[in-house]
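The material for today's practical consists of a large collection of protein records. Getting from the letters to the tokens is the skill we practise here. To make this concrete, we reproduce a full record directly below:
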Amino acid sequence: MRRMTSLQAAALVVTLATGAALMAPGSAASAGLTPNEQLAADLQLAVQNAAFDEVVDFEYDTKNGPAPRVANQPNVDVAVIELDAAGNPTAAANVLFSRDFPDGKVVTLDANFAPSGVDWRAWDLARWDGDWNAAWPKGSRLVAGTSGEKFMVPYPASTFKLLVAYHTLRLIEKGTIKPNRDYAYKQRNGKTCLGNTKEFTDTTTQLLEKSITYSSNTATCALLQQLHGLGEMKPMNERFAALGLPTLQVKGTDAGAGGTWNPGEISMTAIDTARLLLLVNGTDGVAWTTSEGRKVIADRVLGPDYQAELRDLLGQQGWNEVLSTPNWCGATYPVQGMPAKVPSRWIDPTDGTVTVHGIPYGYDVRPCNDTAEVKFMHKTGLTENYGSDAGIVKALSGEDGRRYIVTIFTNLGYRYSDASQADSPGKPCFNSGVCYTEKFAILGKSIDDLMRVVS
């Protein structure tokens, strides 16, 4: 059975958005809660304790004093799905935080872990920085027909590359794309890849590897251009909706170069992303049934070999600096997050330091790898205004066997940092190289402790 460990000392009792009592971690079961309710209660408390509302805001590089504390509760969307040995979900939870829900809102999930009672809205940076209560523009609702309390979904940044990879692998499986055939990327119609002009040739296999393991933008532009050329952008979004994952949307990208990645047009919610990762992980039988009655079976959506290929790519992730922070092994800042292992491909065998796509971290990660407890197969995302992480966690051999999926989307990019960094002469990302607030790592460690399995 799952039990909280590191947060047990926090004897906090608050009120759930549903009105039920949120007990101290580990005591939820004694309150007669279901596994979903217990996980939601513990997850809500873990996010509260991470205190994302205490970050400082470097909206303007400070010259006349330290960066101020963020003016409002950031938008934070977190989901966790607990798995059994066969990959089947045993419990799931989704919690939302915003200035409308400063203490958090527990999302109602049905028997298929589909959310209800939330009116998902596309991200609007002007609303966040300006008038929070302005009238919602036409077309801001992500999913037609939804109702409930409004939540503005943070832009997923590069985590959306997971969606592109998933659909590309589906097309490889169907034979539409030949994975080892050269694809010549040439920018057309005056378009560029995020302002960068580059032409090159790679195979789709190479493009997928670069897009996922070190988040190459140019490789992703090429994958998107290829999907546009095949007429597969609209079908990709329709496919996610047909699977019961309607908030997974990649819209507005241009066919000429695969660029134009705009907040509000590319969207992912934590719970739909977690459910997609449930399919990537593979399940035993029916993963869930959609509202239209369709039975979703992981192996029929994407075959086991391709699931394994995507898991392998996610498992080679270089940017281990969000929910897991082993790239900073031994550092006093940021704190160590989820005890995940760094893939050997990034480690210099002579000194143990990590360099990812030319970016050095400078810390010997071998001690952390020696004590690592889990493998984290994930994709991160970062821009100035957005930070995210989403992946599958599995205990390493000899550990307690915990298995779960965790996803987080926030509007906390490298514009934000921690109070300890407030005196930085500019955004810490460009000074110390630490681009995410350590609140992510604090939460990652807390969730991993929460998911430990004890007899």
